[in-house]
Amino acid sequence: MVEESAQPSAPEDPLLQRLRDKFGEAVVSTHSYRGDRTAIIDRGSLVATCEWLRDDPQNQFDMLMDVTAVDYLGRRPRFEVVYHLYSIEKNHRARIKVALEEDDVKVASVVSVWSGANWLEREAWDLYGIQFDGHPELKRIYLYEEFEGHPLRKDYPKEKRQPLIGPGAPEGAADGGESSS
Amino acid sequence: MAEQEQSTAEESTDRLEIPFEPLEMKLGPSHPATHGTVRLNLRLDGETVVTAEVEVGFLHRGFEKECESGLYYQAFPYTDRLNYVSPMINNVGYALACEKLFDVEAPERCQYLRVLASEASRIADHLTCMGACALELGAFTAFLYAVEARESAWDILDAMCGARVTCNYVRIGGVASDVGPEFAALVREKLAEVARLHKDFEDLLLANPIFRDRMEGTGILPKDELVALGVTGPLLRAAGVPLDLRRVDPYLVYDRMDFDVPIGESGDNMDRFLVRCEEVRQSARMVEQCLVDLPEGPVDLDDPRVRLPAKGQVFSRMEQLISQFKLVTEGPRPPVGEVYQAVEGGNGELGFYLVSDGTGKPYKCRARSPSFSNTQAMPPMVEGGMLADVIPTFDMVNMIGGECDR
After folding, report:
1. Residue A125 and residue A139: Cα distance in Å, rounded?
2. Are B216 and B268 within 8 A, CB to CB?
3. I need a surface site. Which of A22, A47, B47, B339 has the fewest CB within 10 A?
């Protein structure tokens, strides 16, 4: 299983240091691996942290480049939601992560902070089943509504087939549920 | 019932208008004016777009899932098919992410070749975008000029890897093969061809009042909204933000390249077109510089952890034979960790996020595709405008299905 590969970061990156000073206990851990600074944030303070990261003049993370999730099946907490931030003004990057338990895959949406989070969070919902509270329209983006499960989860087999839907589908295919292979 | 009739009768005498309901119009998934499989659900008030919704996912094929089930080097062919108009840039981006994870760096000659391949790809990418735009606005002839020029740019890639589109050229710590002695002459010939056709193409369009009318002043979105939506690449630069990763965060040998980053002013479709036009010329400049500066030396990293040993040694020495066998069957094994590496793709920031659990397969391989974020920004660009303006805006957003839907 993937373990936290926190390198002994001495001295700590100034941005991560400021983040710790500002949010204290809400910052679960930080590390910089290969120069990518990363902070794991408590789920409850995600939006406040993101707002600070965007608005503080020393941070100015005005762009949310990416939102995705990682499924560490078998580890607790099972899921991590990963945010990649970039600042045009400061030309620096940061990665923010939030850990989520399997039985409660909910995290606050950051659409209010960066409007670009809309589709990215829909994608994470579609493929990983992460529920974003406060998202304006959380629905699947790539797959169709009848699709069952979230295919990028590690317990979703790659070979699994879903029944065909729509006007051209064979008779009774929609009842098939689990199917061949 | 009687009441209703009365009220409609009153209304109709009041102002002579037919009761109106917005017209729902579906553009796509396959429509001659959308060069990509995507569906636009529009609500129209006459010819004005009230709301627009973009449906993507028609080309979703599970890029991440496939990558997770293969070895690190086996993902290269899949990256070709992300942005299939500039596959080399995807190859390079993925290779750089892997190299960051493995903490290795490719030799200098390889880095120059990668820059050359990336820039030739960018020429092809922009020409496709601009040519398709011309076609969809009715300028079929101009499209043919662009496609012929693109063919010349692809000939450069063909000379490097033997394929026009499915390149699969870059490797972790190297490239598939070095270029031959006649390469430089061929590239110069093809570049001249591109420049000639590109000039004709520009002249045909920029002096055309119909084309200008449809491009100028359409599809504008304020700079801060573009930034908040995560829009990158020519779209953002056309709005006046000089964000180009080759300049602000140089990778490979871009810090040694002499090039300009064109930016626009108003951020309308015309600016987006002109920015791409100029970038084609700047890319050609960089290809030329790569040819001049291309150093001698190996193209592959001499590191048995990631790169296959030379064939001659595999057949004569035991250690190299074992090394080759292990690398092919088990793949190179990176340390445990996670990296994000971004490159400047044809449409903006193309990033790869890799998570390694120490085995030969990526635990997670995520592509941050510029088309996805850029397409998301399309509805606010077209809402409130005319139906006809949807087409040039869609062209300039340049949604590439393979990359957007992964």
Report:
1. 7
2. yes
3. B47
Question: For B269, what's the count of Cα atoms within 13 Å in the CB-facing half-sphere?
Answer: 30
Could you tell me the residue range of the domain that residue B285 belongs to? 55-405
Structural domain boundaries enclosing A170: 148-181
Q: Are residues A76 and A125 in the same domain?
A: yes
pLDDT of residue A179: 43
pLDDT tens figures, B69-103: 989 989 999 998 888 888 899 999 999 999 999 88
Can you tell me the mean pLDDT for A173-178?
Answer: 47
| CA distance linking residue A101 with residue B306, whole number of Å | 36
- Give the one of A5, A34, A118 whose C-beta lies nearest to B376's C-beta: A118
The reply to whether A51 falls in a domain is: yes
The reply to whether A152 and A124 lie within a common domain is: no
Q: Are B241 and B341 in the same domain?
A: yes
Query: For tokens 């390889």, what's the residue?
Result: B110
DSSP assignments along B315-364, one per residue: TT-HHHHHHHHHHHHT---PPSEEEEEEEE-SSSEEEEEEEE-SSSS-SE
Please give the tally of structural domains in chain A.
2
Contact between A91 and B249 using a beta-carbon 8 Å cutoff: yes
Q: Identify the pLDDT of residue A28.
A: 84
- Predicted pLDDT at A11: 60
DSSP SS3 for A26? helix
User: Closest to B355 (Cβ–Cβ): which among A2, A152, A158?
Assistant: A2
- What does the pLDDT read at residue A109? 92
* Number of domains, chain B: 2
Nearest chain B residue (CA) to A127: B62
Confirm whether A26 is domain-assigned.
yes
- Chain B residues touching residue A95 (CB < 8 angstroms): 340
d(CA A177, CA A147): 10
- Let me know: does A85 contact A94? Beta carbons within 8 Å: yes
Structural domain includes residue A86: yes
Peptide bond into B332 cis (omega under 30): no
**Domain stop point among B32, B54, B76:** B54
Tell whether the model's pLDDT for residue A67 goes beyond 90: yes
Quote the tokens at residue A35.
């120069």
In chain B, which stretches have pLDDT less than 50? 1-5, 7, 9
> B355 CB near a chain A CB, below 8 Å?
yes
Judge if the upstream peptide bond of residue A11 is cis by omega within 30 degrees of 0. yes
Q: What is the ipTM of this complex?
A: 0.84
- Assess if residue A1 is contained within a domain: no
- Whether residues B359 and B398 share a domain: the answer is yes
